[in-house]
Amino acid sequence: MTSTPVLVPPQPVEPLLLYVAATTQVVSAAVVVERPEEGHTLPVQRPVYFISEVLLETKIRYPQIQKLIYAVIIARRKLQHYFLGHPITVVSSFPLGEIIQSREATGRITKWSVKLMSETLTYTPCKAIKSQALVDFVVEWMDSQLPLAQVQAKLWMMYFDGSLMKTRAGAGLLFVSPLGVHMRYVIRMHFAASNNVTEYEALVNGLKIAIELGVRRLGVRGDSQLVIDQVMKASSCHDPKMEAYCKEVRRLEDKFYGLEIIHVARRYNEAADELAKITSTRGTVPLDAFSRDLHEPSVDLGSGADVETTALHPTNAIEALLAAAEVMEVEQRPGRPFDWRTPFLDCLIRCELLEDRYEACRIDRRAKSYVIYGKSRELYRWSPTGILQRCITIEEGQKLLEDLHSGACGHHAAPRTLVGNAFQQGFYWPTAVADAIELVHSCHGCQFYAKQTHLPAHAL
User: Fold this and answer.
1) How far apart are CA 162 and CA 274, in angstroms?
2) pLDDT over 90, % of the chain
3) Model-level pTM?
């Protein structure tokens, strides 16, 4: 990027490279040609064309991987003449090819994969920066020129940030009402804390203040990627302290009708960052800001020595975690079959585990792939492609397989095909494969025609 890149025309049927990038509000793609040049030992990449698009409010909520796939889609739509006349290789550090070509893809990824099916696209990992710097520059420059996304009507917004100096720590909070009224809070912490602890304290105390204000729909914005990823279950909590804070956040989520937590860049969180620095430096608190003092953590963190000792022994860490959790015995109601979703709902909503220690460990480990969504508190599961699948009972799943197998539009498919169709429709239950195998083996038509050859006698 030391000199301005000049666009060059590609030769006929010359292979091209496609680089993609995405931020919160912008996606960008660049078509590049790689060819040897005189005076250079290695081939040199020259840009052919680049495009970008500002995302609508609905598309801003796409996960990062879906934004990158959407960048490939708009590149195919706007630069179709390049896609038709040249073989194109998509270069990305994300496994775009595995996700697009996955059989378990559902939702919009399935629609996009159908659109890209007719193209001669190959996917390769990004091994060097090269032209990725160009597309990153375009998307970041456009994102910096855009204003922050507008606040939704009837929705409170909360910006939080924590700050830690040598001997002092604090947090800053900014609340914005639907009418645009700003309320500022500063929190002074009088105990030993780390950077992550200050961020979690800001988030937890901000949620408590919102509950005191009577807020029921809240949008939360913060610049700590680690904290937000752990709360949204995008990454796991290996530290018992962070796990305790995550459980406290999920406990407070029950007090809201709607709660949205999103990571933003630091430049969009300057107001909360300024308040946090005032508290950590013990500066003068603004006259229009409310102040609070914390003399102990909001959650029970235990002693530091005990935490370090148990961290060296995985078995002791699991036992300590189970001992700290509230244990309950799941009782099966007479006359009703056991619902496999009950242990996960108890773990996510009330942080309650089964009495059996082995089953409790298994439920706590697998609960990270599930989430509670909607007013009815239904259980959903994150698929490997990042799509939410609605969890249904085993009886409902068996009825769904029967409709897919021998219903009005059923074609007596194989077990794995039936399960794939059910999962692509957005449903999940743990015994799907076993139920499909049993259904096919018990189907009279499948057994009668199973030995007949369905392939043509000669190659077509």
Assistant:
1) 10
2) 12
3) 0.39
